[in-house]
Amino acid sequence: MVTERRANALRVSRCNGSAGVAGVRRGMAVAEAKAMLPSLRLESGDERADVEALRKLAAWGQAFSPVVQIEPPDALLLDVTGCERLFKGEENLLRQAMDGLRERGFSSRGAIADTAGAAWALAHGHHESAIVTSRGRDVEDLLCLSVGVLRIDERTVSALAAVGVETIEALIYLPRSSLGSRFGDELLYRLDQALGNVAEPLVPFEPPVVLRSYLRLGAATDRRDIIHLAVERVLAQFCEQLALRVVGVTRLCVTFCYPASRATTFTVTVSSATRSFKRLQRLLTARIEQIRLPSKANGVVIWTRDVERLDGWQEELFETRVADEHEVSELVDRLGVRLGVESVARVALVSDHQPERAYAYVGWGKGTKGGRDEGTEGRERKARRHGGTEARREGESVRPLGVWGRPVEVGVVAATPDGPPAVFRFRGA
Asked: Among 85, 135, 153, 401, which residue's beta carbon has the most beta carbons within 10 A?
């Protein structure tokens, strides 16, 4: 079971089939889920890893269609118009796609329909895990589904349920003039997208460009001096590519090739985007000294997918600030190479009503981009993944009006261990 912190409570974000059979549901408090199934294994959600996995699947999905759109948090939309001829029909296309996902360790649900909205709704709400609708029959297949599959927010779903509207069929028969005023224009927009009354063009995913430089050695060798010289030569070519594209690199991969065994790869992470040959050379030299090649290498490849736009800047008359920034970045890089990137952290502010919990430790590169500060909002958003509480709504105070010098014990009664206080007692009242 994967958990997430929401509304000051730890809740279920995802669960497997066994937990679902036992009654565990998304959004349920973890304490309630553990009471139902004490053997539950908990895993903290990793938003960054989820996004990266979805991007890799989108790149893989381009084998089935040139137009693949990422639909967070866990869906891909493909325009397969005309592609079915290459797979001997839409059924075979969907089956091969789902088989490929299963081979990669993912459970999936899929649907092919006339519109992207209808396909999303059928994949998330139909009783079959794989369904291909007949052309022009999307409306009939959608009628029995819950209104929640229209990609509307939970508040709207609850408001519709309160007046007895739980299926798309019941929603369609209501007068459109009152739907917008009572439940918002988003409801009508999503409904029209599913029914094909409003076009929904997909935004194709563009996989990151891979920059690489390669050098084949005249003979296989494990001599350190030749390895260092080869890496320097390849790095010089690589930095020329970065300069031509006016970009900097944030993570560098070095692959050693061997005549009779599989290649090995190691990475070097940079705290701020750079294309400086000297800076990257120092990091690679330190990293190479820590590794041991399994056999003699006959080729070196330096490559990356992680680049950022890096325009030149005008140097100041007194370069104290610029020099200090560069020195700090290089120090962080050297520490990351020797100790590991995750071991280098800093303190970031978090919105929390408890002053002693208004901070979190985050990785050095998680709050800055290209050496520039992203601002308080970006820091809080990233720090919350590492233990901070949810941000306050606009207009709410992020600090108490007054704080005592010593903490005062307040007895609290809550409906669930992770839920909000229902009753509290303070000074006898």
From this structure: 153
